[in-house]
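Milestone 3.1: sequence recovery, worked example.
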């Protein structure tokens, strides 16, 4: 069934530029670190390394292995410089929250300059960008709205809306009705997945609807805190979506051009996390969080390869897994943080915990793996920024706390960016030894839950109802 799609006619006015810009709070030296990039983290490990078994148990060797994997995931021989506006999916170009130096701002000025600002409607879905436009999914109840915005001017290129009635969970009174999932820009199409699991493919140039699949009959939004929240994933084997609720779910691979099923597997319902694709033992697999577990599904067939229990009393499995050389790192607000080792013996797969750090518990914030160190935001101590050794689970440093309710984390070259719920954009060096804030900007008048777009010369943020561009020069 295809929902009726309406063209929203008429220009949408942009908010005028303010006369002043927010100034950064700067450290005592007044300087912001700049220079070469730290090696970024990995999400698609295809590195099959053999070596001395004794060396494999060495922390130094394994940290070096992580650095090698990170570089292999983000650097390809002869690769051209990425487009200046390339942010096509959840957590950026590589879906890791990690940017290379070519993709990152070189320096962070004392203040950001506010550019255009557009009212887009409510929601928590993060924006994406490409081909000179920014795309965002929002809600003007009872409809969901997809907007294409000119990156240079903030002018609305096109908007489309469709009916998406929702029965809201009575315990989630303070929350908006979504959408939550981040759009996906790839293969000449823009994909959106709404709160009630209406999946749409759009022509990003014209806004024409290419195809639509309505999975709303498979979920009961009145029983979910957030509705559908996983962000679609594009693989060589198809467009991956995971739909369902606490009663059960289905993970599907669809033909990106037509929306037709390529394979489907019934299993547990999705958590609120978004999947990644990694290759282990030569097998490409989609790794994601269900309501009560972490799973690996073969990308080519949909076959469930392995499952690791990850129970949460409210089914709040929200954090996107982070790939390592031999598995993933996962975290939860009541589970703490674990590294899982995934292995294959014959035709059987297994996932075991290499370490468990209960005192680092990530809630709505997904960590990044940069320079061989895991950086993130833990819900402990009323919200603290942390750095962990991914080999041992040891806490390398943690701030005193009360830093933020939550935060999106991006590793941009040799800087870490924490965009907090309280609309503070905090910049620090990538440093496993200590937390050192060098820049702080206020970037919105209301709360922020969406991931920012971080480009080489600008940052784009979504608050409760607006999309705003801030330039670095």
């Amino acid at each position: 069934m295809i929902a009726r799609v309406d063209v929203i006619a008429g220009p949408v006015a942009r908010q005028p530029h303010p006369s002043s810009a927010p100034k950064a709070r700067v450290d005592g030296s007044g300087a912001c670190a700049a220079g070469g990039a730290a090696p970024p983290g990995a999400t698609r490990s295809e590195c099959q390394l053999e070596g001395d078994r004794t060396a494999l148990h060495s922390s130094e060797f394994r940290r070096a292995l992580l650095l090698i994997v990170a570089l292999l995931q983000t650097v390809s021989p002869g690769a051209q410089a990425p487009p200046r506006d390339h942010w096509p999916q959840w957590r950026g170009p590589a879906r890791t929250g990690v940017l290379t130096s070519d993709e990152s701002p070189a320096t962070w000025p004392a203040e950001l300059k506010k550019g255009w600002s557009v009212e887009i409607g409510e929601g928590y879905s993060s924006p994406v960008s490409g081909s000179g436009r920014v795309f965002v999914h929002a809600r003007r109840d009872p409809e969901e709205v997809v907007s294409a915005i000119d990156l240079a001017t903030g002018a609305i290129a096109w908007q489309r809306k469709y009916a998406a009635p929702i029965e809201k969970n009575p315990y989630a009174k303070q929350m908006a009705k979504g959408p939550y999932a981040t759009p996906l820009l790839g293969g000449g199409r823009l994909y959106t997945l709404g709160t009630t699991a209406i999946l749409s493919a759009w022509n990003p140039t014209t806004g024409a609807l290419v195809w639509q699949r309505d999975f709303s009959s498979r979920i009961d939004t009145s029983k979910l805190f957030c509705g559908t929240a996983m962000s679609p994933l594009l693989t060589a084997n198809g467009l991956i979506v995971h739909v369902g609720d606490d009663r059960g779910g289905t993970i599907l691979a669809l033909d990106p051009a037509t929306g037709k099923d390529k394979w489907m597997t019934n299993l547990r319902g999705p958590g609120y996390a978004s999947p990644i694709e990694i290759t282990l033992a030569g097998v490409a697999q989609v790794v994601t969080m269900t309501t009560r577990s972490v799973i690996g599904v073969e990308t080519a067939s949909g076959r469930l390869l392995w499952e690791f229990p990850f129970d949460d009393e409210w089914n709040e499995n929200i954090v996107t897994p982070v790939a390592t050389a031999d598995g993933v790192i996962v975290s939860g607000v009541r589970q703490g943080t674990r590294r899982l080792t995934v292995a294959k013996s014959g035709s059987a797969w297994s996932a075991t915990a290499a370490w468990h750090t209960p005192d680092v518990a990530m809630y709505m914030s997904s960590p990044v793996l940069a320079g061989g160190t895991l950086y993130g935001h833990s819900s402990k101590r009323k919200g603290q920024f942390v750095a962990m050794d991914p080999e041992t689970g040891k806490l390398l440093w943690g701030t005193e706390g009360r830093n933020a309710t939550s935060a999106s984390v991006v590793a941009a070259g040799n800087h870490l960016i924490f965009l907090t719920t309280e609309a503070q954009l905090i910049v620090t060096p990538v440093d496993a030894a200590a937390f050192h804030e060098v820049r702080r900007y206020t970037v919105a008048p209301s709360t922020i839950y969406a991931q920012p777009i971080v480009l080489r010369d600008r940052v784009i943020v979504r608050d409760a109802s607006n999309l705003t561009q801030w330039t670095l020069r």
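Helices lie at 53-56, 59-74. Residues 9-59, 67-79 have pLDDT under 50 and may be disordered.
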